Protein backbone atom coordinates (compact mmCIF):
# COMPACT_ATOMS: atom_id res chain seq x y z
CA UNK A 1 0.00 0.00 0.00
CA UNK A 2 1.01 3.63 -0.42
CA UNK A 3 0.08 6.62 1.72
CA UNK A 4 -0.41 9.77 -0.33
CA UNK A 5 -0.68 13.40 0.77
CA UNK A 6 -2.66 15.94 -1.27
CA UNK A 7 -1.42 19.48 -0.69
CA UNK A 8 -3.66 22.10 -2.28
CA UNK A 9 -2.91 25.77 -1.78
CA UNK A 10 -3.34 29.18 -3.39
CA UNK A 11 -0.22 29.96 -5.42
CA UNK A 12 1.21 33.44 -4.74
CA UNK A 13 2.88 35.82 -7.19
CA UNK A 14 6.41 35.24 -5.85
CA UNK A 15 8.30 31.96 -5.82
CA UNK A 16 9.77 32.47 -2.33
CA UNK A 17 6.29 32.45 -0.74
CA UNK A 18 5.32 29.38 -2.73
CA UNK A 19 8.51 27.56 -1.86
CA UNK A 20 7.90 28.20 1.83
CA UNK A 21 4.37 26.81 1.47
CA UNK A 22 5.64 23.70 -0.33
CA UNK A 23 8.34 23.09 2.27
CA UNK A 24 5.75 23.28 5.05
CA UNK A 25 3.54 20.77 3.23
CA UNK A 26 6.51 18.46 2.71
CA UNK A 27 7.42 18.50 6.39
CA UNK A 28 3.83 17.93 7.51
CA UNK A 29 3.50 15.06 5.05
CA UNK A 30 6.69 13.46 6.35
CA UNK A 31 5.41 13.75 9.92
CA UNK A 32 2.25 11.86 8.91
CA UNK A 33 4.29 9.10 7.26
CA UNK A 34 3.27 9.81 3.67
CA UNK A 35 5.17 8.09 0.87
CA UNK A 36 4.21 10.76 -1.67
CA UNK A 37 3.07 14.40 -1.58
CA UNK A 38 1.28 15.68 -4.69
CA UNK A 39 1.21 19.47 -5.19
CA UNK A 40 -0.82 21.46 -7.76
CA UNK A 41 0.06 22.70 -11.24
CA UNK A 42 1.99 25.94 -11.74
CA UNK A 43 3.39 26.25 -8.21
CA UNK A 44 6.19 28.70 -9.05
CA UNK A 45 4.02 31.80 -9.39
CA UNK A 46 0.49 32.85 -10.32
CA UNK A 47 -1.35 36.16 -10.70
CA UNK A 48 -4.64 36.21 -12.59
CA UNK A 49 -4.13 39.92 -13.33
CA UNK A 50 -0.69 39.37 -14.90
CA UNK A 51 -0.76 36.92 -17.83
CA UNK A 52 2.99 37.30 -18.37
CA UNK A 53 3.95 36.20 -14.87
CA UNK A 54 4.47 32.57 -15.82
CA UNK A 55 7.03 33.04 -18.62
CA UNK A 56 8.68 35.82 -16.63
CA UNK A 57 9.10 33.73 -13.47
CA UNK A 58 9.91 30.36 -15.07
CA UNK A 59 13.03 28.75 -13.61
CA UNK A 60 15.30 25.94 -14.81
CA UNK A 61 15.10 22.66 -12.97
CA UNK A 62 18.35 23.50 -11.17
CA UNK A 63 17.04 26.94 -10.14
CA UNK A 64 16.58 28.06 -6.51
CA UNK A 65 12.92 27.04 -6.25
CA UNK A 66 13.46 23.41 -7.22
CA UNK A 67 16.78 23.11 -5.42
CA UNK A 68 15.04 24.04 -2.17
CA UNK A 69 12.38 21.40 -2.70
CA UNK A 70 14.97 18.77 -3.63
CA UNK A 71 16.82 19.31 -0.38
CA UNK A 72 13.56 18.73 1.54
CA UNK A 73 12.61 15.58 -0.39
CA UNK A 74 14.73 13.13 1.58
CA UNK A 75 12.44 10.40 2.86
CA UNK A 76 9.43 11.30 0.69
CA UNK A 77 8.51 11.55 -2.99
CA UNK A 78 7.26 15.00 -4.01
CA UNK A 79 5.39 15.72 -7.25
CA UNK A 80 3.82 18.78 -8.86
CA UNK A 81 4.19 21.11 -11.86
CA UNK A 82 6.50 24.06 -12.52
CA UNK A 83 7.24 26.23 -15.54
CA UNK A 84 10.67 25.58 -17.05
CA UNK A 85 12.14 27.89 -19.75
CA UNK A 86 12.29 26.32 -23.19
CA UNK A 87 15.18 28.56 -24.33
CA UNK A 88 13.00 30.39 -26.86
CA UNK A 89 11.08 32.79 -24.64
CA UNK A 90 8.36 30.31 -23.71
CA UNK A 91 8.23 27.51 -21.17
CA UNK A 92 7.37 23.86 -20.69
CA UNK A 93 4.67 23.03 -18.16
CA UNK A 94 6.72 20.34 -16.42
CA UNK A 95 5.40 17.66 -14.08
CA UNK A 96 8.23 16.58 -11.80
CA UNK A 97 8.70 13.79 -9.28
CA UNK A 98 11.63 14.01 -6.89
CA UNK A 99 12.85 11.93 -3.97
CA UNK A 100 15.94 11.92 -1.76
CA UNK A 101 17.30 15.06 -3.36
CA UNK A 102 17.01 14.01 -7.01
CA UNK A 103 14.48 13.95 -9.84
CA UNK A 104 13.11 10.50 -10.54
CA UNK A 105 10.68 11.48 -13.33
CA UNK A 106 9.83 14.45 -15.56
CA UNK A 107 6.95 14.98 -17.98
CA UNK A 108 6.24 17.99 -20.20
CA UNK A 109 2.49 18.54 -20.58
CA UNK A 110 1.20 17.22 -23.91
CA UNK A 111 -2.30 18.71 -24.05
CA UNK A 112 -2.28 22.49 -23.71
CA UNK A 113 -5.42 24.22 -22.45
CA UNK A 114 -6.71 25.95 -25.58
CA UNK A 115 -10.36 25.83 -24.53
CA UNK A 116 -13.07 27.84 -22.76
CA UNK A 117 -11.69 31.15 -24.13
CA UNK A 118 -8.18 30.44 -22.81
CA UNK A 119 -5.06 29.64 -24.83
CA UNK A 120 -2.23 28.03 -22.89
CA UNK A 121 -0.26 27.55 -26.10
CA UNK A 122 0.34 31.30 -26.41
CA UNK A 123 3.11 31.06 -23.82
CA UNK A 124 3.67 27.33 -23.33
CA UNK A 125 5.52 24.89 -25.56
CA UNK A 126 3.90 21.45 -25.86
CA UNK A 127 5.67 18.32 -24.76
CA UNK A 128 6.49 15.73 -27.41
CA UNK A 129 7.09 12.63 -25.29
CA UNK A 130 4.70 10.33 -23.47
CA UNK A 131 4.90 10.49 -19.68
CA UNK A 132 6.75 7.82 -17.73
CA UNK A 133 5.50 5.14 -15.39
CA UNK A 134 7.65 4.77 -12.27
CA UNK A 135 7.76 2.92 -8.97
CA UNK A 136 6.85 4.71 -5.74
CA UNK A 137 6.46 2.77 -2.50
CA UNK A 138 5.93 -0.49 -4.38
CA UNK A 139 3.21 0.82 -6.70
CA UNK A 140 3.41 1.76 -10.37
CA UNK A 141 2.61 5.44 -10.92
CA UNK A 142 1.88 7.34 -14.16
CA UNK A 143 1.94 11.10 -14.72
CA UNK A 144 -0.70 13.40 -16.20
CA UNK A 145 -1.33 17.15 -15.93
CA UNK A 146 -4.65 19.03 -15.66
CA UNK A 147 -6.20 19.24 -19.17
CA UNK A 148 -4.75 15.78 -19.91
CA UNK A 149 -7.65 14.32 -17.93
CA UNK A 150 -10.00 15.19 -20.80
CA UNK A 151 -8.08 12.78 -23.06
CA UNK A 152 -8.77 9.18 -22.01
CA UNK A 153 -6.15 7.89 -24.44
CA UNK A 154 -3.33 9.15 -22.22
CA UNK A 155 -4.68 7.48 -19.09
CA UNK A 156 -5.26 4.25 -21.00
CA UNK A 157 -1.71 4.33 -22.38
CA UNK A 158 -0.27 4.72 -18.89
CA UNK A 159 -2.34 1.88 -17.48
CA UNK A 160 -1.41 -0.41 -20.38
CA UNK A 161 2.20 0.44 -19.50
CA UNK A 162 1.55 -0.84 -15.99
CA UNK A 163 0.33 2.20 -14.04
CA UNK A 164 -1.80 1.45 -10.98
CA UNK A 165 -1.99 5.09 -9.87
CA UNK A 166 -2.39 8.23 -11.98
CA UNK A 167 -1.08 11.51 -10.55
CA UNK A 168 -2.98 14.58 -11.76
CA UNK A 169 -1.78 18.02 -10.58
CA UNK A 170 -4.02 20.80 -11.90
CA UNK A 171 -5.04 24.43 -11.84
CA UNK A 172 -8.67 23.84 -12.81
CA UNK A 173 -10.44 27.07 -13.75
CA UNK A 174 -13.89 27.82 -12.36
CA UNK A 175 -16.79 28.11 -14.77
CA UNK A 176 -20.26 26.78 -15.61
CA UNK A 177 -20.25 23.05 -14.81
CA UNK A 178 -16.45 23.04 -14.61
CA UNK A 179 -16.40 21.57 -11.09
CA UNK A 180 -18.64 18.79 -12.36
CA UNK A 181 -16.33 18.17 -15.32
CA UNK A 182 -13.37 17.80 -12.95
CA UNK A 183 -15.09 15.23 -10.77
CA UNK A 184 -16.71 13.28 -13.60
CA UNK A 185 -13.50 12.90 -15.56
CA UNK A 186 -11.31 12.02 -12.59
CA UNK A 187 -13.83 9.34 -11.65
CA UNK A 188 -14.12 8.14 -15.25
CA UNK A 189 -10.36 7.80 -15.72
CA UNK A 190 -10.16 5.72 -12.53
CA UNK A 191 -13.18 3.53 -13.25
CA UNK A 192 -12.54 2.84 -16.93
CA UNK A 193 -8.95 1.82 -16.13
CA UNK A 194 -9.53 0.18 -12.71
CA UNK A 195 -6.76 2.30 -11.19
CA UNK A 196 -6.40 5.03 -8.58
CA UNK A 197 -6.49 8.69 -9.57
CA UNK A 198 -4.84 11.17 -7.20
CA UNK A 199 -5.82 14.67 -8.32
CA UNK A 200 -4.69 17.93 -6.68
CA UNK A 201 -6.00 21.35 -7.70
CA UNK A 202 -4.71 24.86 -7.04
CA UNK A 203 -7.24 26.80 -4.97
CA UNK A 204 -6.58 30.47 -5.68
CA UNK A 205 -9.14 33.12 -6.72
CA UNK A 206 -9.58 31.62 -10.19
CA UNK A 207 -9.27 27.88 -9.55
CA UNK A 208 -11.44 25.35 -7.77
CA UNK A 209 -9.15 23.30 -5.53
CA UNK A 210 -11.36 20.23 -5.08
CA UNK A 211 -8.49 17.77 -4.75
CA UNK A 212 -9.57 14.15 -4.55
CA UNK A 213 -8.59 10.51 -4.53
CA UNK A 214 -10.67 8.12 -6.64
CA UNK A 215 -10.34 4.38 -6.19
CA UNK A 216 -10.35 1.73 -8.98
CA UNK A 217 -14.13 1.28 -8.79
CA UNK A 218 -14.83 5.00 -9.07
CA UNK A 219 -15.35 5.67 -5.36
CA UNK A 220 -14.14 9.10 -4.19
CA UNK A 221 -12.34 8.20 -0.98
CA UNK A 222 -11.00 11.69 -0.21
CA UNK A 223 -12.41 15.05 -1.29
CA UNK A 224 -11.07 18.45 -0.27
CA UNK A 225 -12.94 21.73 -0.62
CA UNK A 226 -11.96 25.07 -2.11
CA UNK A 227 -9.66 26.29 0.67
CA UNK A 228 -5.99 25.39 1.29
CA UNK A 229 -5.76 21.94 2.84
CA UNK A 230 -3.56 18.90 3.30
CA UNK A 231 -5.35 15.56 3.05
CA UNK A 232 -4.18 11.97 3.29
CA UNK A 233 -5.32 8.68 1.79
CA UNK A 234 -3.99 5.14 1.65
CA UNK A 235 -3.96 3.30 -1.67
CA UNK A 236 -4.23 -0.50 -1.57
CA UNK A 237 -3.01 -2.89 -4.25
CA UNK A 238 -5.64 -5.36 -3.02
CA UNK A 239 -8.33 -2.88 -4.07
CA UNK A 240 -6.85 -2.72 -7.56
CA UNK A 241 -6.72 -6.50 -7.79
CA UNK A 242 -10.33 -6.74 -6.60
CA UNK A 243 -11.52 -4.17 -9.13
CA UNK A 244 -9.68 -5.86 -12.00
CA UNK A 245 -11.08 -9.25 -11.00
CA UNK A 246 -14.75 -8.20 -10.92
CA UNK A 247 -14.47 -5.59 -13.71
CA UNK A 248 -11.89 -6.95 -16.19
CA UNK A 249 -12.14 -4.11 -18.70
CA UNK A 250 -8.42 -4.27 -19.46
CA UNK A 251 -8.70 -7.96 -20.31
CA UNK A 252 -11.85 -7.42 -22.36
CA UNK A 253 -10.40 -4.50 -24.32
CA UNK A 254 -10.63 -4.96 -28.10
CA UNK A 255 -8.96 -1.72 -29.20
CA UNK A 256 -5.28 -1.28 -29.91
CA UNK A 257 -3.16 0.76 -27.53
CA UNK A 258 -3.32 4.53 -28.17
CA UNK A 259 -0.54 6.06 -30.26
CA UNK A 260 0.78 9.61 -29.76
CA UNK A 261 0.35 11.91 -32.75
CA UNK A 262 3.54 13.92 -33.43
CA UNK A 263 3.17 17.66 -32.88
CA UNK A 264 3.36 19.82 -36.00
CA UNK A 265 6.54 21.80 -36.62
CA UNK A 266 4.77 25.16 -36.24
CA UNK A 267 3.04 24.33 -32.92
TrEMBL record:
<dbReference type="InterPro" id="IPR047999">
    <property type="entry name" value="De_GSH_amidase"/>
</dbReference>
<comment type="similarity">
    <text>Belongs to the carbon-nitrogen hydrolase superfamily. NIT1/NIT2 family.</text>
</comment>
<protein>
    <submittedName>
        <fullName>Deaminated glutathione amidase</fullName>
    </submittedName>
</protein>
<feature type="domain" description="CN hydrolase">
    <location>
        <begin position="2"/>
        <end position="237"/>
    </location>
</feature>
<dbReference type="InterPro" id="IPR036526">
    <property type="entry name" value="C-N_Hydrolase_sf"/>
</dbReference>
<dbReference type="Pfam" id="PF00795">
    <property type="entry name" value="CN_hydrolase"/>
</dbReference>
<dbReference type="InterPro" id="IPR003010">
    <property type="entry name" value="C-N_Hydrolase"/>
</dbReference>
<dbReference type="InterPro" id="IPR001110">
    <property type="entry name" value="UPF0012_CS"/>
</dbReference>
